Amino acid sequence: MDSRSGSALTALVVDDDEFSRASLSEMLTSLGIARVDLADNGRTALKRLRQAGTAPDVLICDIFMPDIDGIEFLNHLVERQYRGRVILVSGMDVQMIAMASDIAASSNLNFLGAFLKPVPLDTLARALGL
What residues does 113 pair with on adjacent strands? Predict the structure, then answer.
C-alpha cells in the first residue's frame, strides 16, 4: 500500500457510463485525490496511459465496456507492468464480479477489489486505505 495521503494520489476512471464516471470522480475528489482523469472506454484509457509522463496511482475500471472490456484492459495493464492500484466495478451480477476478481487477483497487479456499482463512498475509501 502506498503511504502517501489521498492528496498526493492521482487516479484514472475508465467507464463507458457517463454517470458512473462522474460519480466515481466526485467521490475520489471528496477523498482528497489530487487529480482524477476520465476515459469513456478502454482504448482511450490505454492511449492516455501511453501518453502520460507517469501512470496514475489508482485505476478504477468498469468490467463491461464495448470494444475493450475490463478483463482485456487488465491484460494490457499486466503487459505494461502497471504498478498502481486497481479497482474493478460493475453494474452486473455478483458472479461476474467474482470471476473478474479471480482473474485480477491472479495477475501481477496491485488489485484492491471489485465492487458492484454504485460503489459506496466508505467502501471506496476503505479499498484505497484512505
Answer: 87
**Amino acid letter, 59:** L
Is the separation of the CB atoms in 93 and 63 below 8 Å?
Answer: no
Tell me the C-alpha distance between 62 and 107, whole Å: 17
Distance in angstroms (rounded) separating the CA atoms of residues 81 and 63: 19
Rounded CA-CA distance 40/130 in Å is 26
Tell the residue number behind the cell numbers 451480477, with chain if given. Answer: 93
Task: Show the domains of the chain with their CATH numbers.
Answer: 6-128 (3.40.50.2300)
- Give pLDDT tens digits for 84-118: 999 999 987 778 788 888 888 888 899 999 999 99
